[in-house]
Amino acid sequence: MSPGSYNGGAVVAMIGKNCVAIASDKRFGVQMQTIGTEFSKVFPVTEKSYVGLPGLTTDTQTLQEIFRFKANMYKLREEREIEPRTLSKLVSSTLYERRWGPYFVHPLVAGLDKNNQPFICAMDLIGCITETCDFVVGGTSEENLFGICESVWEPDLEPEDLFETISQALLCSIDRDCFAGWGAVVHVITPERVITRTLKSRMD
User: Fold this and answer.
1) Which residues of 8-36 are buried (b: 16+ CB within 10 A; e: fewer)?
2) C-alpha closest to that of 38 among 30, 46, 27
3) Cβ neighbours of residue 176 under 8 Å, at least 6 residues apart?
4) How many other C-beta atoms can be found within 10 angstroms of the C-beta atom of residue 113?
5) How open is the CA angle 193-136-141, to the nearest 5 degrees?
6) Could you tell me which CATH class the domain 3-199 is placed in?
7) Which of 88, 57, 87 is CA-nearest to residue 72?
8) Residue 51 and residue 4: Cα distance in Å, rounded?
9) What is the widest separation between alpha-carbon atoms in the chain?
10) Concatenated DSSP letters of the chain
């Protein structure tokens, strides 16, 4: 078992029509043992930029604080919020700095830029970026998520349709992964607001 799958988890991000969504399960476990059921792997960096950190929980918590600190320092220096694309470069360079002793996470970045254009990307544990125009996945459920997202995702989804699509994809995937589950949290980022909803799922 790799360290990245030791605690389990699932994160997915999708692009819609002038909106973007990112969601994760809420299980915190140690292999087959469930320790907590309120641990989301998705964290806000700015009002319109979120980062998902599936992987080893200790590294998830460490990187969350590092990214929050670096984003705040960027805002102080530049006097503006960090853009999602710039945030992805920040995340990538932070991971690459530790390439000889890497953090065991596979980050996802999702958000809207200053022109409200959606942006999502995923990367490996040393920061190699994969930018797409549909969806990205991470965690122990990623094989399930790839198959389901390819089946249900459509271009130009409205916010409510995007919420329904990403929710069904995530719930169906974590139902087939004993390392993920115990509910989910979904963030839909639109130009006007961020819609956050909590989902119930199988509790076994």
Assistant:
1) bbbbbbbbbebbbbbbbbbbbbeeeebee
2) 27
3) 141, 144
4) 14
5) 110
6) alpha beta
7) 87
8) 17
9) 47
10) --GGGSS--EEEEEE-SS-EEEEEE--EEETTEEEES---SEEEEETTEEEE--B-HHHHHHHHHHHHHHHHHHHHHHSSPPPHHHHHHHHHHHHHHTTTS--SB--EEEEE-TT--EEEEEE-TT--EEEESSEEEEETTHHHHHHHHHHH--TT--HHHHHHHHHHHHHHHHTT-TTS-S-EEEEEE-SS-EEEEEE-----
Per-residue pLDDT tens digits for 41-88:
999 999 999 999 999 999 999 999 999 999 999 999 999 999 999 999
Residue found under tokens 């292999």: 31
Q: Say if CB 28 and CB 7 are below 8 A apart.
A: yes
User: Per the structure block, which two tokens stand in for 101?
Assistant: 């002793």
What proportion of the chain, given as a percentage, has pLDDT over 90? 81
pLDDT digits (tens, 9 = 90+) for 109-127: 999 999 999 999 999 999 9
